[in-house]
Amino acid sequence: MTERDRDFRAEATPGAREAEGAPNRIRLRDRDAELRSAEAAVDKLCRDFAAGGTEIGELLTFSGRPGIGKTSLLHEVRRIAKLREGATVLFARGGERQFNEPYHVLRQLLQPVLGRLEPDEFGQVMGTWEEVVGPAMGLKQPRKGARRLDPQGVRDGLDFVLTQLAPRRAPLVMIVDDLHWADPESLGWLAQFAVRARELPVLLVFAYRDDGADWHAESQEHQRAVAGLATRRHELSRLSLVAVTDMIRAELGEKAEDAFCYEFWNVVNGNPFQVVALLDQVRDQELEPVEENSQQLRELAVDATGMTLKSWLDRLGAATLRFAWAAAMLGIDIRQDLATRISAQTAEGARESVKELRKQRVLTTTPNGNLEFVHPLIASSIYNTMPEATRTGMHGVAAAEIENAGLGLLAASRHLVETFAGEGDDRTVRKLRRAASEHLLIGAPEAAQRCLHRALAEPPDDQDRAEVLYELGCSALLTDPVATVNQLKLALDPEEGPLRPSMRIDATFRLSEVLAHSGELRQAAVVCQEEAERTTGDPAGRLRLEAASFMWHAYRKSEEDGPARSARLGALCESLTGREAADRAVLALRAWDLTLRGEPSAEVLRHADAVLDNGRLPKGLGWTDNTWGFELPATLGLSYTYSDRIAQAERLFSDAIVQFEVAGWSGAHRGFAYFLMGLARFRRGLLAEAEDFLRRALRLSERISGKLPLAWDAVGVLIDTLIARGRSREAWELALEFGFHPPYHPTAMVLPDAASLYGKLLLAVNRPAGAAAALTEAGAQLDIRGWHNTVWAPWAGHLAIALAQDEPERARAYARRSVVEAERFGTASAIGTALRLHAQIEDGQQAVELLEQAVTHLGQSPAGYEHAVALVDLGAALRRVGRLEDAQEYLYQGIELAQHCAADGLVDRARRELANYGLRPNRLGDARETLSQPEWDIAELAVRGVPPQRIADHLALPLSLVNRRLAAVYRKAGSGPDGLAAALGLPPAQRDGSDPLDGPGGPDTVGDGLGLGR
Length: 1014
Ligand SMILES: Nc1ncnc2c1ncn2[C@@H]1O[C@H](COP(=O)(O)OP(=O)(O)O)[C@@H](O)[C@H]1O
Ligand SMILES: [Mg+2]
Fold this sequence. Notes:
By secondary structure, the chain is mainly alpha-helical. 65% of the residues lie in helices and 4% in strands.
């Protein structure tokens, strides 16, 4: 039976329910308030759900010292919830020994319900996350050739799955005991989910210790976060004297004297676990419960934590203790056969041990037939009395037995890491490495690292050492850049042993990637270049590193050797003969290089198009490809974005979002894809969407670490977007927050450096002097670099505006220069924008002419917002030369487009322009223009009194579609059915009782007589 099967039985079979509640049920004393609260929470959940509520989630917590009664309370809650019609109750518990087993708690919690879904529903619940959540929850094997999962991806996937699952299985009660021992992977998600659960029909019930023991720091933090979220929070207090006296008398009879009971209560400090333990002792010792004997109570009360090896030996005997050790090693939900083999007993011997351990109230049996410690305090005590050699040795046996039992390396590895190092055993190293890679496939890099660190300690032989270091470096790739850099450097260090040549290339590439994304672009480029020079026997590997070096250099904002390097890249391009991924990679880099330099965009596109196969990324250059990384397709998409082929770029970027999601790469990767999409949307003028993508990118990057290049890129475009939306103040604050001001530290990866952005921003908030200084500085840098793309870095056009007042001649020179450079690049959006900027420093007829040209160019580009600005500018310029009628027309057009772009600031500006000169700021809408042809078709029939169902039959459309279109018609016409004819300027219906679709003008003419309105 697999682990999963066992879990199913535990939770799902009806028989298990009764078995569980009945015999173990105890009378809970002094817990009325807690029980009422729990009952109320369950009732409320069920009631609100039945009343159609959805956002009704609550979090109920019980905390307190060990033995105070948390588990017992949870049992009651579970029982109460299970009695409710239709409720789904899920249960899991953390285990001290299971702390290092990734997703141990969530697997317990979710497998029973997810594993029982019918395939259809399973698909709906999983959505696109099946390959991420499936393996992590142990519901399926990772796909062949699967890549490591990003832990954040698993968490996001779980969010999706629970959002799908909760309403389907509502009301849903999720109970977790001993949360303080939940594995960090599970706890991290639970803490995050506790926030979202409020929006779902879910009741979370958590119990944890709050005895200040020094749990894992991260766990403590999560625990505190959870505690803060609780809507009902209960700290369990010790039992009262009355309650304890009751318990004593129930056990020993009414004869128990008050003084005895009082002393008893004092000794156990009102802790129910100790009450039960001490009562056992009193019974065993046949102590009379009278005042004289109360002095002996303190001696009798050795609590479990005070037990030594000798006291356990005395109590259990050697063989039985050995079995108990094996059980303690397994932790919770203990399989007797496994414990038997680990303790090296015969089946008969084991049965004897179990019998004795039950009698001694050490073990009990769970409903699914496995063993369990009566209380985790006892398990800890027994585990802690193991001599070290015995413990490490037994963990070794446990690892082997768990694997033999077919429970897999993932389960075995937590024992493997506990075994003795220093044997230099090859097999152990291999197993640990395999376990590490399995952990990466379920999104548990920390567990993978534990395995690899242990493998290093074994130690591996010299041949393998560098490889293990390399694997260690890669294991943190998605989560911990600093650790990755250090480990990869070690792996590449010849002192650590030889690394296979192909691996050296991989390791170097990975290292350069991490360096680059931490802002160390120069170092990234140098590392690749040096390794390329050292690589002799492998031309493909060498080309890969050379190309990577070009790539990182290309992202550097200041570089001594920019133009010469560009020339070398050009020469390398010319020398390419093949169509392999590496050749295409070089072409993609060249396209970006040409873009930045502002070379003719036709050349850019020629190179870019040669990279793609039918508009798609070729094999080997995909978004999730390990050889090249995602930077390369990103570079390609950027070239398309700036060359006005935005639709192509968006196709690539939306693939990126989906592929990262499917791969579970939810951190920096998905953040980067959002940024790219945000940039493309911004270029297109879909500002609201741009803002949304960019904010998502920013959130993801902040979740990873402070301020990454990704954050600066996202903020850079977000600032532009906010300015365009008329929210300059917000843009300004964001810029200050992210340090886009002198001295310029932040370096975005994709965007020009901070000085360009800062200058643009100063201009937007009307501080031309500061803007001129910043933009001059930015321009000087870019000139050295040989980068003249006016779309990517419109500094010259902006500088012209900043200088217009004080130095009109210099201003004009910059404006003209910018137009010339734009014409060289040659895209409609580049030329149009440069002309528009130029117009801003001209007056009268001159400005009108420049703007007329700008509008013509921009009208042929996908740059919607730029187009809108030019229209409004042209309207204003026309107004200034007194051509009011034309002015009005362009302003109206500008307003319409600006509204479409969600450029509220621009809409306001155009409206003010109209209003100030006595023009009507709103054109009176003509419904006839805004109705689409299919809407007209339906509107005409509706006006003639044809009911929707008949319209649907007549036009052979589904009724729902007809109704939707009718709704649009009413909205656009600004009228319901009655006034519709008048609103649309159609003759009113004749209501003479005849079927409007019969007779003259009936069915035959309706079919083609639809053009009436247009
Ligand atoms: N309110 C109570 N009244 C009587 N006995 C209790 C009560 N709470 C717990 N117990 C007993 O105390 C023992 C320890 O309780 P448990 O729920 O396991 O504590 P915790 O989970 O807080 O460590 C159990 O065996 C149970 O029988
Ligand atoms: Mg407990």
